Amino acid sequence: MHGHALRAKYEVVSNGEVRSYTLRPLWLVVDEGLHLVARRRDGKVRTFDVEGFREVERVKRNTSPTDIDVERYFADAFGRYTDFPAHEVSLRFVGKAARQVRRRSFHPSQVITEDNGDQLVARFRLGLCPEFTSWLLGLSPDVEVLAPEELRQEVRERHAAGASRNAGAP
Fold it and tell me: DSSP 3-state assignment of 66?
């Protein structure tokens, strides 16, 4: 498909709305799923999970190739989310989460700044996207957000909402 445009209908995961796009494919990326990185008609580069496409057709006209740097494009991304501004994030991990973070790098910016064996503190520079927040929630109760405050507050609110939803009998 390199050099060809696509006309597509895509379901936006945040609200279920189906939108029409004319896209110029740039790359297919495999990262916890298959994603299409494409330039929209307005020139913005976006990442689309392939499962969200409802219709796709090739447009007959050709487009010029692109020279976007893939590493730079995904530098602050956590997973496929590339359009969230980067923040300095500091997290304290204990127990199973600390063992996982010692064993594996979850983001290229990950740096362990403290590690006393029982707990560790790691720093990241990345976009505060839904996938990152979900990752943090999945590590609960073995992770504490030290910074930024807005992420700490979001995690606290989402934990409270989940606890409330699961408090009584179904």
Answer: coil
User: Using N-to-C axis directions, what is the helix angle for 130-138 and 149-165, rounded to 10°?
Assistant: 60
CATH no. for 4-60:
2.30.30.520
**Cβ atoms within 10 Å of 157's Cβ, excluding its own:** 10
CA–CA gap between residue 81 and residue 29 (Å, rounded): 12
- Strand order across the beta sheet in which 53-62 lies: 45-49, 34-40, 18-30, 4-11, 53-62
Q: What is the pLDDT of residues 9-45, one digit of tens each?
A: 999 888 899 999 999 888 888 877 888 988 898 888 8
Residue 118: beta bridge partners?
none
**pLDDT score, position 74:** 81
Kindly report, residue by residue over 140-159, the tens digit of the pLDDT. Answer: 999 999 999 999 999 999 99
In whole angstroms, give the CA distance from residue 75 to residue 73: 6
User: Domain residues of the chain, as ranges?
Assistant: 4-60, 86-165
Question: Strands of 86-94's sheet, edge to edge?
Answer: 111-115, 119-127, 86-94, 143-147
